[in-house]
Amino acid sequence: MTSTMVFDQLINWIQQEAVAIAWTCFVFACYGGLTRRLFPKIDQSVDDGGFKNDSLKKAYLTVRWLSGIVFTAVLLVVWGVDISGMLLMSTSILAVTGVALFANWSVLSNITAYFVLLFHSAYRRGNFVRILDGDNYIEGYISDIGVFNTQFITEDRDIIIYPNNLLLGRPTQINPRNRFHSVGKIPKPDEKKDDLK
């Protein structure tokens, strides 16, 4: 097979698949545009929050995985891969994943909560936070926000690891005026006065 025959076959293939090639270029351009616009926003949020570079790497990795899965699925459809047999299974998986991203019992909901906490200006490194859970509370300084949990350091230098989805689901006081202890029951008003004496 000569080089001219290979070149002719390549030209014929490009002509036959011109639409799919154009869509593929468009999908890659969208992927590049998404990452170019999203990554600087993640950078800014991590810098504003005072978090470590480790948080930035985790955010990049998570965004790359999720967007990569979506764009791969789009490319499969563009190139005519028959996914009709997988349609029922994929919609079921999509429904379960959608619920899992926001349900309190799900590990995946921690990833969703991670991005909300990362972009929320109140959850910055060094802020003193009190999480209220009924009559109980946990309080401490935000040390780091991970993909699945947030790390607090109490005034007694204890480390508390708290799931991200629970942090978003509970009432939270940021930099409260008075502090209790690290963990415990919320004191009644007369107990607060006794503590001040």
Task: Explain the overall architecture.
- The protein has 197 residues and is an alpha+beta fold.
- The chain has helices at 3-16, 18-49, 53-78, 87-102, 108-119, 164-169, 189-196; strands spanning 128-133, 136-145, 149-153, 159-163, 172-174, 183-185.
- The protein contains seven helices and six strands, in the order αααααββββαββα.
- A hairpin with a 2-residue loop joins strand 1 and strand 2 (136-145).
- The model has no long low-confidence stretch (mean pLDDT 78).
Topology summary:
Blueprint: H1 3-16, H2 18-49, H3 53-78, H4 87-102, H5 108-119, E1 128-133, E2 136-145, E3 149-153, E4 159-163, H6 164-169, E5 172-174, E6 183-185, H7 189-196
Antiparallel strand pairs: 1-2, 1-5, 2-3, 2-6, 3-4
Helix pairs in contact: 2-3, 4-5
Helix coverage percent of residues? 55-70%
Structural class: alpha+beta
Q: Low-confidence parts lasting 5 or more residues at pLDDT below 50?
A: none
Strand content: 15-25%
Net shape: elongated
Q: Give a short account of the largest sheet.
A: 6 strands, antiparallel
The number of helices is 7
Provide mean pLDDT, rounded. 78
Task: For the record, give the distance between the C-alpha atoms at the N and C termini, rounded to a whole number.
Answer: 96 Å
Query: Care to count the β-strands?
Result: 6
- Evaluate the radius of gyration: 25 Å
Task: Describe the structure concisely for a colleague.
The chain has 197 residues and is α+β, with helices and mostly antiparallel strands. 58% of the residues lie in helices and 16% in strands. It has helices spanning 3-16, 18-49, 53-78, 87-102, 108-119, 164-169, 189-196; strands spanning 128-133, 136-145, 149-153, 159-163, 172-174, 183-185.
